[in-house]
Amino acid sequence: MSENAALEATKNIDIAGALWTAMQPALPYLAGFFLFAIFIGFLQRPKQTKAQKQHAYNERRSWDDLKLIRSMAPLENPGRVFGYLRKVCPYRFEDMILSELARRGINIIRGTSYSGDGGIDGQFTLNGERWLIQAKRYKAYIKEDHVWAFDAVCQRRKARGLFVHTGRTPERLRQMQRQCGDVRIISGEELLKFFAGHSVSLTLAPASPVSPVEAGKPQIARASVPPPSKGRAAIEGAVL
């Protein structure tokens, strides 16, 4: 190193040392300022509402619920499974359905609130079509009016509907192939198969029964679900 370069380096070191010495009295204030800024940023971060926290909790628990149900061998122990489903929190039941759909590779949208949603507990997209979900934890027979009311909501929103329940389906609805207008009903053995990870056809029949509210509407076409990626249970027909 030349003499001039050495002198220049020494000069720079002296300047840096002088600056450091001059800044030392201000260091506690600078540290306090940065800590205060971090504290203010922490206070101003968006806080989760009680409903958002409940949603997050139910979503996390729904995955554990699904594992537990599959461990029960649903098709061999239907009574045990339905006993569990009818006791679980109704909002967790909704998230269990959505989580199972997500597990199968289906694009889902979870509800943003537990009330004021018009009876919509979630939705998903299949073959480019939107499906709305309504989940009910019944013990006795479901009311046909509830299904038709959900169908009316689906008609207004130009979507198809999936009505999932843990109760009993009236004979009249069973004769209608578990279909009311644009709404497909999933319950009983089909629900057990769904939670067990088996294929469940959700295809709406071309000769779909027409709701009293929507008499005269053109029949709905079939939909088909592509096979899920490797390791996921297949879904046939039109979702679930």
Question: What is the compact description of this entry?
Answer:
The protein is of the alpha/beta class and 240 residues long. It has helices spanning 3-23, 27-44, 50-71, 78-87, 90-103, 144-156, 171-175, 188-196; strands spanning 107-110, 122-126, 129-136, 160-165, 179-180, 183-186. Strands 1-2-3-4-6-5 form a six-stranded mixed β-sheet.
List the secondary-structure elements in sequence, H or E: HHHHHEEEHEHEEH
What is the CATH topology of the largest domain? Trna Endonuclease, Chain: A, domain 1
Mean pLDDT: 77
- Which segments are poorly predicted (pLDDT under 50) over 5 or more consecutive residues? 207-236
Which CATH-level-2 architecture of the largest domain? 3-Layer(aba) Sandwich
What is the rounded Rg?
29 Å
Tally of individual helices:
8
How many domains would you count in the coordinates?
2
**Class from helix and strand fractions:** alpha/beta
Beta percentage is 5-15%
For the record, the CATH class of the largest domain is Alpha Beta
Biggest sheet layout: 6 strands, mixed
Tell me the overall shape.
elongated
Report how far apart the termini are: 77 Å
What is the helix fraction of residues, given as a range? Answer: 40-55%
Count the E strands.
6
Strand order across the biggest sheet?
1-2-3-4-6-5
